[in-house]
Amino acid sequence: MKTIRNRVAALGAVMLLGSTTGAGAHMPQVLPSAFDTGQRDHVTVQATFGEDAFVPEIAMRDAPFALVLPDGSAGPVGPITYMRDLAIFEADLKTPGTYRITSGQRLGRKGTMFRVDGKWVMGGEDGKPPAGATPVAVQSTTLADAYVTRGQPSNAALKPRNQGLEIQPITHPSSIAAGSDAAFVLLFDGKPLGGTDVTLFRAAGNHDGRKVAAQLKSDAAGKFTLKPDDAGDYLILVRHRTTAPTGAETPYRSYTYTLAFDAA
Predict the structure, then answer these.
(1) What is the pLDDT of residue 132?
(2) Which of 52, 94, 90, 97 is nearest to 71 (CA)?
(3) Res. 261: pLDDT tops 80
C-alpha cells in the first residue's frame, strides 16, 4: 500500500510540475474549432490538460480565460461549461483581424522538487530524495495560447505580455505552412530566454506514432525556428523553472507554456 501511495504521489508531482524533458507530462492546452475562420464570427474552444497534444484528460479549471482583440485590448469569453475531461466556451470574433485565445496565467498546486548539481529532479518512488539533493518548494504555473484570425490577419494581439513564460510569434500564425520555416522568440518576463528546450507535438502523431515533430533549444537571443512537415494542428511546449516573484507562496515556480497553431 505504501508503494502504491508513493507512486501516485510521484505521478501527481510529474503532472503538476512537469518532467525535465516535457515528454510524458500533462500539458495545458487550448484548442479553437478553427484557426482561420474566414468570415465566421465565433469559435468554440476546448481547454484541457493532457499528456498528448489535443487529447483531453483533465478539465482546465480555475483559469482566467480571456481574449485579446485585434486592437490589442482585452475582451471576455463566453460562459464556460466544465466537463470531466475538458472545459468548453465560445469566443466572439466581432471584427476582422487576429485574436489571441488564452487560458491566462494559472497557478497550480505546490509540491517539492530537488536540486542536484544545478539540475531539477523528482523524488524516487519510495518518496526519498536523490542522494545529495536539496529539497525545493515549487508551485506550478501554466499558460496556454492559440491565435485565431477572422478575415485579414493583424499583429496587435501578437504583442507579448512581458510577464512569465511565453512565446512571441515572428512568423504570423495564420501564415504558417507545411514544409516552411516558422520563427518564434521565447521570452521570460519580456526578456529573451536562451538555451531552453522547445518541443513540437503533432496532433496526427496520436494516430501514426510520430507524436514529437521536433526538439530543439532556443538560441542566445531566445529565437527558434520550426518547420512543420505536414499540414495539421501542432502544439509547442516549453518549460522553465526559476525563482518565484516577490511575495509568492513558494520560493520557486515551474512554468509551463503551450502555443497551439495549424500548418496549412
Answers:
(1) 73
(2) 97
(3) yes
Q: Pairing between strand 212-217 and 182-188?
A: unpaired
Within the chain, where are the H helices? 2-17, 205-208
d(CA 75, CA 142): 20
Burial 47-84 (b: 16+ CB within 10 A, else e): bbbbebbbebbbbbeebebebbbbeeeebebeebeeee
Task: Give the pLDDT confidence score for residue 206 in this predicted structure.
Answer: 74
State residue 6 phi and psi, 5-degree precision: -65, -35
Terminal Cα distance for the chain, rounded: 50
Contact status, residue 67 vs residue 77, Cβ threshold 8 Å? yes
pLDDT of residue 67: 97
Q: CA 213 to CA 59: how far, in whole Å?
A: 25
Q: Are 171 and 184 in contact (CB under 8 A)?
A: yes
> If you search the block for the grid coordinates 505552412, which residue do you land on?
177
Q: Which residues contact 51 (CB under 8 A, 6 or more apart)?
A: 24, 25, 26, 27, 57
